[in-house]
Amino acid sequence: QVQLLESGGGLVQTGGSLRLSCTASERTANNYAMAWFRQAPGKERELVAATSWSDSTIYYVDSVKGRFTISRDNAQNAMYLQMNDLKLEDTAVYYCKLVVLIGSDTWGQGTQVTVSS
Fold it and tell me: Considering the chain, what is the average pLDDT of its residues?
C-alpha cells in the first residue's frame, strides 16, 4: 500500500503564500493521477487541483485559478501545490490523494492551512 506524506501547511495572512508538498512512498505503473483536496469546517471536501501522472493534464477549481499552481516531480514521487494570494476562504485542511488505475486510492493525512486577516 502506497503511503503519502504531506507537509507545508501553516498560518499565513491574507495575500501570503504557502507551498504544500506530498510525497508518495513509491511509484508504480498503477499510479494514474495525484490531486489536492480541501475541507473547510462544516463543508464537504472539494477538489482543488489535480495532475495526471503521465501526460501532465492539469485541473484547477475555478476559485483557485491564477493563484494556485500544481506541479509534480516524478523522480521524487512528489507533488506540490504553490498557493499565492491566499484568501480567508482558502482556510481548510488540505489533503493529497493518489488516484490509481486498479484498487483503492490513497489519501494523505491532511495539513492545516489557516489564512488570517
Answer: 93
